[in-house]
Amino acid sequence: MQEKIDKLVKWLQDQANDAGLEGLLVGVSGGIDSAVVAHLIKRAFPDNSLGVILPCKSNPNDQEAAQKVIDSCGIKSLTVDLTETHEVMFSNIQDQLKSAGDYNESQEKLADANLRARLRMSTLYSVGTNYKYLVVGTDNAAEWYTGYFTKYGDGGVDLVPLVHLTKGEVRDLARELGVPEEIIEKKPSAGLWEGQTDENEMGTSYEMIDKHLKGEEIPEEDRKIIEGMHKKSAHKRELAAAPPKF
């Protein structure tokens, strides 16, 4: 694990230096993935790294967990509350759709959640521009393979250092880095609505996804769910589709 940490830290340093930028930042949610990234970028750029806490109609417990992550690695932090921004923007969009007679209530929860993720992305890039920092993402191999991220939201980043690591490997990395145990053991959740957890939403577990990615046998039902998510989310892992050159 220490060898992986050393290689990731060196890679992060190289990416920022090659881009001619001065450091790195990450959005800190209070979950294990962003905690690991916060620790990594702090090691890569001790004086030029930033953890950004971005509450948006968030559970106060998530903000407290995010602060514990900040404290555990000693990274400089900034908090930007997006609740009011989201309320104004989303209500305006809803009003216009209702006026046009095109409002689809069944899609409201998803649209609400995705807008939160995209507002966070926009905020991170605005902050990153201020500091001349690259934006570092938190998606692990399981999330990347299944497409469990918002396109141009938490998927809208410059670097994805955890993309080849299973959820289990991220946990091992977290312990080696000194991430608080309560963060490591916390149920994975995007915190997008009350009671939401990643595994309930996906219909399978990270353990099953990790096993599938490692080529191990898993129940057929889980395999179908995982492969179905992978197929449907292919567009998220590609650049915007373009027609052939006519």
Question: What this model shows, in words?
Answer:
The chain has 246 residues and is of the alpha/beta class. 54% of the residues lie in helices and 7% in strands. The chain contains eleven helices and four strands. Helix 3 links the parallel strand 2 and strand 3. Helix 1 (2-18) crosses helix 2 and helix 2 (32-44) crosses helix 7 (167-177).
Care to give the gist of this entry?
With 246 residues, the chain is an alpha/beta fold. Helices cover 54% and strands 7% of the residues.
Query: Which segments are poorly predicted (pLDDT under 50) over 5 or more consecutive residues?
Result: none
Largest sheet: 4 strands, parallel
Helices and strands, in N-to-C order? HEHEHEHHEHHHHHH
Which strand-content bin applies to the residues? 5-15%
Strand order of the largest sheet: 3-2-1-4
Helix content: 40-55%
Give the number of helices.
11
Shape: globular
Radius of gyration: 18 Å
- How far apart the termini lie comes to 50 Å
**Average pLDDT level:** 94
Structural class call reads alpha/beta
Quantity of strands, as a count: 4
